[in-house]
Amino acid sequence: MLDSYGRNIDYIRISVTDRCNFQCLYCSHRLDVLPREQVLRFEDILNIVKAAKDLGFKKVRLTGGEPLLRRHIEQLVAMLQPVGLSIHMTTNGYFLHELSKPLFDAGLNGVNVSLDFVDAEKFRNITNGGRVEDVIAGIDSALDAGLKVKLNTVFTSWHTTDDMKQLIMFSKSRSIPIRFIELMPKNESSFSALFRNISEAKEMMGAFTKMTVEQVSGSDGPAQYFVTEDGVKVGFISFFNLNQCKQCNRLRVSSNGTIYPCLLSNKKLDAFDDIKAGTDKTKEVLSEAILMKPIHGNANEVGPYMSEIGG
Ligand code: SF4
Fold first, then answer.
1. Is the CB–ligand 1 distance for residue 263 below 6 Å?
2. pLDDT, position 251
3. What domains, with CATH codes, occur in the chain?
4. Can you give the pTM of this predicted structure?
């Protein structure tokens, strides 16, 4: 469906839980999680995906919190698969070693896995206790299962050229793309200490590899892509760029049924009851949210918390 500015909105991101097993320093994860009765059920999420399909959406991404914490998540994927949208997930990868195969069998197409560092100590520190070996085992099992995998690295002031090199070498060893993402100013306390302009990531990479610009399709999202001299596809995503707003094609739904038309806007729609009322009512609120999308985000507006919508 076209929004008020002629953009085709065909990608919906749905958070299936606000819980997470990591406590990344840059994420505004809330410790008081939503009570179960305020979280969308699988049937409700199916309503959203069916309504989205009717409105011409092509792709759904399940996010969190950490979506793999949602019990029987593979059953949700199996329920969504017949609707016909391409199904993806963003995860911290911790539970992938046990869930990749059932998720693939249920119809999941691909996963974006967060991997901020290959260095075990830095990874443990940024995630507040996570073990990078577990995430790497998860990535490998996703690849073995047949899932498409991309890596997401939140670029911070902690990254050295060596860290960047290790991440690129890891991507090369698994033949998977990696995207460096500029930190979003959503968590006031840690933001200023960790923030670093994404242009510095490109400069640091220039110290050890040449990169050529890659032309990409619209479905590749807001990243600007390059290819390193040994063939690794690398994306850079800035926090706020008016050009990416021109191509914005997405809506976000939190696990309690709030629809966010834009990541950087105060506009939102509490659609919990409408979603529960069925596909027709859900179609109405999705359409309303699409028409509420601003022409571009406003860096001064609050928008949803990362732990509500998973980026
Ligand atoms: S800031 Fe808003 S309009 Fe711009 S790309 Fe992000 S979600 Fe879309």
1. yes
2. 97
3. 11-309 (3.20.20.70)
4. 0.94
